[in-house]
Specification:
Beta-lactamase; 15 strands; alpha+beta; 21% strand; 8-stranded antiparallel beta sheet; disordered N terminus; 314 residues; 3-stranded antiparallel beta sheet
Length: 314
């Protein structure tokens, strides 16, 4: 009998090595059309997108197109004096002092915004603390990193992700930004009703803009630790415990785009995501060689689903 799985509107995939422990698709990708969720459905990854931003920065660092200790004002014009000490490393690990979305109340996450206007909105608010002296989760910090990537690479951010990460790894169902007329998309829901999507080309760029499938995310969870994308030093930096978080032992520290901690006495490297109408979770548990992906297009999907799956597949 297969292990019990929590009720999740979306797609679930859990593996141990090459063995699939749980694979479930449930609910509708779009209630208006009656299209069911499937293994090929593409969901917004929300903040899991930060893993690809971090990998893009590391790829460019390997090519000497940028340095992790570069100050942000090398790449972003108009930075206030208080931003002067902020480095790319600090943006990657959330020690820059920049705030999260609630700290920038003039920004509408569902509305488009010219890049220069968005950067100006960030720059109008000073850091919450002196850079490097604290920890505060910051999606705006990752938006800045995406701008750095496209300036250092001299190509649009979404094109860099596709050409340098998604295509080389065979993640053919994955892309960044507004979907246009692409097929196979989930629509975000809350209380079983569709909700407006976050804007992903500008406001969400680098922080929550990637769409993917459960199989592509499994490819990512396999490929990154195996060294199929990054060199050994970049991989070491990715999973180094750079900064202590405020979330306790389960999420005790932050690497480059990954929370690092332990659950039920077992090490895990993971990240969750939360966009309007979408919840996402991806984890690698090296001790048991498990990989867990939950992609949901239902706002109410909660963290209990993760712990239920871990218990069911232990």
């Amino acid at each position: 009998m297969p292990p019990a799985t929590p009720p999740v509107r979306g797609s679930i995939l859990v593996t141990r090595g090459d063995t699939v422990l749980t694979q479930v698709n449930s609910g509708y990708a779009d209630t208006a059309t009656g299209t069911p969720n499937s293994r090929q459905t593409r969901y917004q990854l929300a903040s899991i997108s930060k893993q690809f931003t971090a990998a893009a920065v590391l790829l460019l660092a390997e090519r000497h197109a940028l340095a992790l200790d570069d100050r942000i004002d090398r790449w972003i014009g108009g930075c206030p004096q208080s931003w002067g000490p902020i480095t790319l490393h600090q943006l990657l690990v959330h020690t820059s002092g920049l705030g999260h979305w609630k700290d920038y109340p003039t920004i509408d996450l569902t509305a488009g915004m010219a890049p220069d206007d968005l950067l100006a909105a960030f720059q109008q608010a000073g850091p919450l603390f002196e850079p490097g002296t604290g920890w505060h989760y910051s999606s705006p910090g990752y938006v800045l990193l995406a701008h750095v990537v496209q300036r250092a690479a001299d190509r649009p951010y979404r094109d860099f992700l596709t050409g340098e990460i998604f295509t080389p790894l065979g993640m053919d169902g994955t892309f960044a930004g507004a979907p246009g007329d692409r097929a196979g998309l989930a629509r975000g829901h809350a209380a079983d009703r569709p909700v407006p999507s976050f804007e992903l080309d500008s406001v969400g760029m680098g922080a929550g803009d990637v769409w993917s499938t459960v199989d592509d995310m499994l490819t990512w969870l396999d490929a990154l630790p195996a060294g199929r994308l990054l060199g050994p030093e970049s991989l070491r930096l990715t999973f180094t415990e750079h900064a202590a978080t405020v979330y306790g032992t389960e999420l005790r520290s932050y690497g480059y785009g990954w929370f690092i901690g332990s659950v039920n006495g077992e090490r895990w490297r993971q990240h969750s995501g939360d966009n309007a109408g979408f919840k996402a979770f991806a984890a690698w548990l090296p001790d048991s060689d498990r990989r867990l992906v939950i992609l949901s297009n239902q706002d109410e999907t909660g963290p209990a689903a993760v712990h239920d799956l871990l218990a069911a597949t232990a």
